[in-house]
Design brief:
CATH topology of the largest domain: Creatine Amidinohydrolase
Bound molecules: 2-amino-4-trifluoromethylsulfanyl-butyric acid, cobalt (II) ion
Radius of gyration: 21 Å
Order of helices and strands: EHEHEEHHHEEEEEHHEEEEEEEEEE
CATH superfamily of the largest domain: Creatinase/methionine aminopeptidase superfamily
Strand content: 15-25%
């Protein structure tokens, strides 16, 4: 039932504020040719009540105002909601028992990667062919020095790409603009943004706002003062992937969110500190669980750290929660991610109808940090470590 809303008696649009059928369009949005769903209201009352937050969608639209890098495809034409993996797009906000206040916004057209950049096997088809059936799903590869050197290079690029994204984060920018920066910075370095078309994921990075745990799809929503946003970047370069993410503050953020984000950062630091040959993969979750629980927070169970290299996701599987049953012990030469997702409320997650966006079941906020790691003879090398020039966005890193 994907009806056009131009009929006066039936509306396919739902009110931005209350979700009821909507027949009014914000005149400013119409003038700026912004997506119709984001501009729809049922009554003047809902329109007026929404004004204080709704007006932010007008700011800077069509003006090419962000860091000189506004994508060429930002016209409202072609902006549609993402619905299920790769299959459909819709002009109508899907129905869902939303767990919090965040909603999906329309997404822009797929970004292009120039000829000459080496692409993973899903880039054209949306389906990874080698990854699912590889032996590396069962055995944890010991990388050669040559592979390790390529991992270093790729992870360094991924770090610089994430840092470029971090520098533009402020109230008023859209997550699609973050995606554009990630996309352009990645291809400028000669890399491919691994998420793009991976199992039909439509964008070049994941942007996870507030109650989104992970795999948020960059869209037309403008970041608001007080939001938190995780940006997860993966780069494919010289045949290997490098994967990292950080959660950023948008403007002034409340104390509970600052506690959540800092504690999540510490969970990853503490987990990394135990990595060395002989340590059990299952112990990673014990360390994270202890710190999160002691801080009054909960650990997500559905998404785990993973092996990485020539494959985006492979063995080992590394849960972040306590009493997990991960198999195996760490050996020098292995590369994998640790990427704890920590919730302010309950640990349980739910999936949006887009098939990607994982949100907290109670609508409370979630934070995440991720590094790609190499086990060395004596401990660990953080391949995606912060650089001296990385933007200074975490207050606790200022001694
Ligand atoms: N970067 C994510 C991870 O840490 C995976 C994103 S896959 C995508 O494993 F398709 F959602 F982009
Ligand atoms: Co990862
Ligand atoms: Co990642």
């Amino acid at each position: 039932m994907d009806k056009d809303s131009s009929s006066p008696t039936e509306s396919s649009l739902s009110c931005v504020r209350c979700g009821k059928p909507a027949f009014l369009q914000c005149p400013k949005c119409v003038e700026l040719k912004l997506p119709r769903q984001g501009a729809a209201f049922c009554t003047q009352d809902c329109f007026k009540a929404s004004w204080s937050f709704h007006k932010s969608v007008h700011v800077g639209s069509n003006l090419g105002h962000v860091s000189g890098s506004v994508p060429s495809n930002q016209s409202s034409d072609g902006w549609l909601y993402c619905l299920r993996k790769g299959q459909t797009r819709t002009s109508q906000l899907p129905h869902f028992d939303w767990t919090g206040t965040l909603r999906p916004y329309p997404i822009s057209k797929q970004r292009l990667v120039p000829e000459g950049i080496e692409k993973p096997d899903w880039a054209d088809s949306g389906i990874p062919k080698i990854e699912p059936s590889s032996d590396l799903q069962n055995i944890v590869e010991i990388k050669t020095p040559e592979q390790i050197e390529r991992m270093r290079e790729t992870c360094r690029i991924a770090r610089e790409v994430l840092d470029a994204a971090a520098r533009i984060i402020r109230p008023g920018i859209t997550t699609d603009e973050i995606d554009d920066v990630v996309h352009q910075a990645t291809i400028a370095a000669g890399g491919y943004p691994s998420p793009l078309n991976y199992h039909f994921f439509p964008k070049s990075c994941c942007t996870s706002v507030n109650e989104v745990i992970c795999h948020g799809i960059p869209d037309a929503r403008r970041l608001e003062d007080g939001d938190i946003v995780n940006v997860d970047v993966t780069v494919y370069y010289k045949g290997v992937h490098g994967d990292l993410n950080e959660t950023f503050f948008v403007g002034e953020v409340d104390e509970a969110s600052r506690h959540l984000v800092r504690c999540t950062y510490e969970c990853l630091e503490k987990a990394i500190s135990i990595v060395k040959p002989g340590i059990r993969f299952r112990d990673v979750g014990e360390v994270i669980n202890r710190h999160a629980t002691m801080s009054g927070l909960a650990v997500v169970k559905s998404y785990c750290g993973h092996g990485i290299g020539e494959l985006f996701h492979c063995a080992p599987n590394i849960p972040h929660y306590g009493r997990n049953k991960a198999v195996g012990i760490m050996k020098a030469g292995q590369t994998f991610t640790i990427e704890p997702m920590i919730n302010a409320g309950i640990w349980r997650d739910r999936l949006w109808p887009d098939g990607w966006t994982a949100v907290t079941a109670d609508g409370k906020r979630s934070a995440q940090f991720e590094h790609t790691l190499l086990v060395t003879e004596t401990g660990v090398e953080v391949l995606t470590a912060r650089l001296p020039q990385s933007p200074n966005v975490f207050p606790w890193l200022n001694s």
